[in-house]
Design brief:
The protein has 285 residues and is mainly alpha-helical. It has one domain. Helices cover 65% and strands 5% of the residues. Strands 4-3-5 form a 3-stranded antiparallel β-sheet, with no helix packed on it. A hairpin with a 4-residue loop joins strand 3 and strand 4. Helix 5 runs antiparallel to helix 6 and helix 6 crosses helix 9. The longest helix has 28 residues. The protein is globular. The protein starts with a helix and ends with a helix.
Amino acid sequence: MVSFVNVLLGLIVALVLAIFAFKKQELTDGGTLAALFVGLTIFAFGGWTWLLLLVFFFLSSNLLTRLKHPLKSEAYEEFAKGGARDFWQVLANGALPALAAIANSVMPSPAWFAVAASFIASSTADTWATEIGLMSKNPRLITNFKRVPTGTSGAVSQRGLAFAFLGALFIAIAGVLLNAFNNVISVGVLSDVLVKQFVGGKKFILIVAVCGFIGSLVDSLLGATVQGIYYCDKCGKETEKTIHKCGLRTRLLKGFEKVDNDAVNFLSSLAAGGLAYFLMERLVP
């Protein structure tokens, strides 16, 4: 059961983090509201280890986003949102870990932390792959391996794939280390806040890293097949935007209008977490 102490601390921590990110122009007004809700829920129901894992994702992603490269600037104009994260971007990455934290509170199990970590690992893997992949020339579409412009939805590169796995592995290792530290200090008056739990060691790292990496591949596959891609007749360019930078409304070229980048991120993370739950239930006693 969630405690009042956790709710209060969760509110304070989430508020501080959301305001800090907003002042750094990393969140819009809507993104700040969503981050406050997600942070409060995760801390209240999961604890500080769960929330800090999500913070690691945002910090590492923002750091890579700030890396400057001419190819990235060109791709941002057509395919990537870039800039401050809005309401739906935050929910696409944070809603599922929040739901996993609630599920863990109702039905405690190490599997739920692996699920939450895999959700976050998938988002991290995708973001790392995107930010590094945008600096690679001649990426290939994941469905047919044909060369496509940098930034094309569903495109992959060797460098991007390598960083996708490193991103997932980073979250997996961080999850184990955070819980190991948490279990050592969760005594006395802090026992209500620092919930002791076992997450599975080497098997946990393997499952979360692999599931997170697979989630990033699912993201690329969905981006290449069902995500809405538009075409500007005036500029003769493909884009993810319904209004092109020239001001002209674009027309749907392929995929589905309702499936945007946020929806793809959500679905790919869901796939990663679902696979993690399946593997944890069968491989970790």
